[in-house]
């Protein structure tokens, strides 16, 4: 089978974390020093209890409300305004991902939750990594040469056993163009479907003919 990247393939495993007792000025310094937009908050047992983002810290420092209204109302807002530690400012509960999620599933979750990153947890809820929009984008936008190689070697060669050169493959800006002849007509939609399923493929333009009908 063709390998489909998962969250576990692209996530960052060495995660910068905060404790609930971490002072906000230290949290801000860690975010800045590591050039990250957010850090998970974990307790002494390693359980994920919240997330503090750079925007959270900035809004706290400037007294600016959350434009998406996620700060809550009443006493909750006032409590966050007085926050001195990561635990007092953090957002909770946390939207998380699993390492075995597919890239499209993680991307949809990021979009649905309106967040830029998702902490990755195991079945016990322990933090194992973090995945960001840029991690997913790096997988989606693959070099054309890499796509062409996978079509030629994995699909046409290893999976279908076609003679080398019987089908020429071009890839440009994610669009795969196929030209040539295959042993059977029924293989044409199979090849097209397999190519469409490759990560990074935008479209498939097939100019293939079958050697004989089924």
Automatic annotation (TrEMBL):
InterPro entries: BON_dom (IPR007055), CBS_dom (IPR000644), CBS_dom_sf (IPR046342), Diverse_CBS-Domain (IPR051257), UCP036990_CBS_BON (IPR017080)
Residue ranges annotated for the CBS domain, each copy included: 11-68, 90-146
Superkingdom as given in the UniProt entry: Bacteria
Keywords: CBS domain
Pfam family for this entry, one: CBS
Transmembrane segments: none
Gene3D superfamilies (UniProt xref): CBS-domain (3.10.580.10)
Residue stretches making up the BON domain: 143-212
Record flagged with keyword DNA repair: no
SUPFAM superfamilies the UniProt entry points to: CBS-domain pair
Protein name per its UniProtKB record: Inosine-5'-monophosphate dehydrogenase
Gene source species: Streptomyces griseorubens
């Amino acid at each position: 089978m063709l390998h489909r990247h998962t969250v576990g393939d692209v996530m960052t495993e060495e995660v910068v974390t905060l404790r609930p007792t971490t002072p906000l000025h230290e949290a801000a310094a860690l975010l800045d020093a590591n050039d990250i937009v957010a850090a998970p908050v974990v307790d002494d047992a390693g359980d994920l209890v919240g997330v503090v983002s750079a925007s959270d810290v900035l809004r706290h420092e400037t007294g600016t409300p959350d434009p998406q209204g996620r700060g809550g109302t009443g006493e909750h807002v006032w409590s966050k305004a007085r926050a001195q530690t990561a635990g007092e400012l953090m957002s909770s509960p946390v939207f998380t991902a699993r390492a075995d999620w597919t890239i499209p599933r993680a991307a949809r979750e990021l979009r649905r939750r309106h967040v830029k990153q998702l902490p990755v947890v195991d079945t016990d809820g322990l933090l194992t990594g973090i995945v960001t929009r840029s991690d997913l984008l790096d997988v989606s936008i693959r070099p054309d040469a890499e796509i062409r190689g996978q079509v030629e070697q994995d699909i046409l060669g290893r999976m279908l056993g076609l003679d080398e050169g019987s089908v020429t493959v071009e890839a440009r800006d994610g669009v795969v163009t196929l030209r040539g002849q295959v042993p059977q007509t029924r293989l044409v939609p199979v090849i097209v479907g397999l190519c469409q399923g490759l990560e990074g493929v935008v479209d498939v333009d097939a100019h293939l003919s079958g050697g004989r009908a089924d």
